[in-house]
Design goal:
two-stranded antiparallel sheet; five-stranded antiparallel beta sheet; mainly beta
């Protein structure tokens, strides 16, 4: 969508995502992470960072060891050393 000579992002339209482009990814892609949830901070589970956008839309996704996918906004996490 173009408005007065500039690109406007509407719902579902992100300039960094298309058929032939995807946001730059961070350095933790494929690395192990430890995850806990605010409701149970003493309990952790492992996972792998599968998406870490370094530009719009800044989505980060972790695949937990049990197969579930969670957004980093839904949990607390840290890289496993």
């Amino acid at each position: 969508m173009i408005a007065k000579g500039r690109q406007v992002t509407s719902m579902g339209a992100v300039p960094t995502i298309g058929h032939d482009r995807f946001p730059r990814q961070g350095h933790l892609i494929g690395h192990r992470v430890s995850v806990c949830f605010a409701s149970e901070p003493d309990r952790t589970t492992g996972g792998v960072m599968v998406r870490q956008d370094d530009e719009l839309p800044y989505v980060e996704i972790i695949r937990l060891d049990d197969g579930r996918l969670v957004l980093t906004a839904e949990c607390l996490w840290m890289p496993v050393r």
